[in-house]
Amino acid sequence: MVSGVQMHYYKVCKRKLWLFSKGIAMEEEHDRVVEGKILHERAYPRLDEREILVDHTFKLDALDGEYIREIKISSKMADADRFQMLYYLYELKKRGIIKKGLISYTKERKTEEVVLTENDEKEIEQAIKEIYRVLQLPSPPPLKKLTYCPKCAYYEFCYALEGDE
Ligand code: SF4
After folding, report:
1. Does residue 157's CB lie within 6 angstroms of at least one atom of ligand 1?
2. Distance 65 CA to ligand 1 centre (A)
3. Total domain count for the chain?
């Protein structure tokens, strides 16, 4: 099953999706995961179920009435954050649980509501197929220069290789 992080990376960069999924982990990426964990523990100290593990594959930060919640540091990756949330809503719906999503951005102090539509469901199904296709590739998809690259944990890895070409 596709994880929430994989769905997020799919939206950001398919090369990143491939590298991450093949276990090529960068220390910086690990630090960010730990940072996110500390962040949500601070954000939801009183919620009993801070983390909900769905089918041992993806973790939801918190279940809060009709909403599931995610907390992010900033809204720089808002599109990918929204898509990841839609994926969670989609997976929950498949299990008969209908929810809406809330994404809180601590830096901007704002919260976005995410509602899953039929069109979103089709888009998610397409994305799942595409993720499996990318993961079957024998080597990572080629480097595409993105404005996000300098902030990516794989930046040095990708651009060092490019320099050798
Ligand atoms: S550095 Fe750029 S191309 Fe390389 S994995 Fe990251 S986002 Fe993708």
Report:
1. no
2. 37
3. 1
Residue 148, token pair as written in the block: 């996000």
Residue spans of alpha helices (H) in 2-66: 4-12, 14-21, 27-43
The CATH number of the domain where 18 resides is what? 3.90.320.10
26 lines ligand 1 (CB under 6 A): no
Q: Is 149 in the pocket of ligand 1 (CB under 6 A)?
A: yes
Range of 107's domain? 4-164
CA 77 to the chain's CA centroid: 9
Residue with tokens 């994880």: 3
Q: Using DSSP, state whether 68 is helix, strand or coil.
A: strand
Task: Give the tens place of pLDDT for each residue, 105-118.
Answer: 999 999 999 999 99
* pLDDT tens for each residue of 19-56: 999 988 776 665 665 666 566 556 655 544 455 555 55
